Amino acid sequence: MSRDLLSISHLNLSDIENIFSRASFFLQSKTVPPILENQTVTNLFFEMSTRTRFSFELAAKKLGANVLNFAADFSSMGKGETLYDTLKVLESMGVNAVVIRHKKENIWNDLIGKTKLSLINAGTGTKDHPSQGLLDAFTLKQYFGKLENLTVAIVGDVLHSRVAHSNIECLGKLGVQVLLSGPEYFLDHKEKLPSHVRIVSMAEATESADALMLLRIQKERHETNGNFENYLESFGLDEKRLQKMKPHAVIMHPGPFNRGVEIAENLVESPRSLIFKQVQNGVYVRMAILEWALS
Ligand code: CP
After folding, report:
1. Which residue in 2, 60, 188, 230 is a FRET match for 29, CA 20 to 30 A apart?
2. Banded pLDDT at 18 (limits 50, 70, 90)
3. From ligand 1's centre to the CA of 263, what distance in Å?
4. Gyration radius of the chain's alpha carbons
5. From CA 140, how far away is CA 285, in angstroms rounded?
6. At what angle do helices 130-144 and 162-173 cross, to 10 degrees?
7. Measured in angstroms, how far is the CA atom of residue 261 from the centroid of ligand 1?
8. For position 233, what pLDDT does the model report?
9. Structure confidence by residue, pLDDT tens digits, 189-218
10. Distance, CA 90 to ligand 1 centroid (Å)?
């Protein structure tokens, strides 16, 4: 039996705990059994990626799977073949799972249940990036030892951020309070917020969070060109703002980060930054996701 991972909303608490427990096991194991030997995973990325694509590739290889990397521009999709037909072709070749990144949200409607492939969402539209939501929550749990009653502030371009939306959903399931802050035009006031989420000022986000998660300004998803001069001073993390954070509070960023825009150059590698820990954990969490989906 194979499973799809399309959205955090499809996971229950026991799925999440199981993924975290297996990620911890993989993290601590010196040698990993080839759980996915003879299985093939294909990465289909229709948008740019470094972390997600390579960590899914590494994760699959560490579990003994074969990995195919699909180059959209050099595939027969350039000759008009649909994504559905591409998946049918991959299924016929014996591929077991496809990891898909796409700018559109609703690509799954034409794909769910139509092949034997396990479908794994590597980031679609502005709403779903489930593996990132899971690895961020895993990183927080690893650092603080527990998640219940933590407060995480997500700051910046929330409106266009699939990471923010998956984090809001994942952290809510795990008992974490979420604060949102940023320029008003990046906060979606039209959506009814879940009870664990509040929109707050930048000062409140900075001073009351246990973790401050900064977001990249997603210019490629904006309809108009904004002016982001002085963004660092207004909504980014600089030394002055760092001094106002709780002494134990940590810095997070899903990446890609733009030094000097949403985070000061030197704070990316601050001792209080979990940014590269998030990247490192991404491999183990994605190993757990592939195992959950395929075995
Ligand atoms: N966080 C994230 O999705 O990064 P990439 O775009 O590099 O995969």
Report:
1. 2
2. very high
3. 17
4. 19
5. 13
6. 50
7. 17
8. 94
9. 667 899 999 999 999 999 999 999 999 998
10. 24
Residue type for position 176:
V
Atom of ligand 1 nearest to the CA of 129: 3
* Residue to substitute in 132, 166, 277 for testing ligand 1 pocket (most ligand atoms within 8 angstroms of CB): 132
C-alpha span between 252 and 255 (Å, rounded) = 9
Residue nearest to atom 6 of ligand 1 (CA): 49
Q: Is 141's C-beta closer than 6 angstroms to any atom of ligand 1?
A: no
Q: How far is the CA of 158 from the centre of ligand 1 (A)?
A: 15
For the cut 70, the answer to whether the pLDDT of residue 291 exceeds it is yes
Q: Please answer whether residues 255 and 55 qualify as being in contact, where contact means their C-beta atoms are separated by less than 8 angstroms.
A: no
Tell me if 130 CB under 6 Å of ligand 1: no
d(Cα 248, Cα 6) in Å, to the nearest integer? 34
| Structure-block tokens of residue 29 | 């194991």
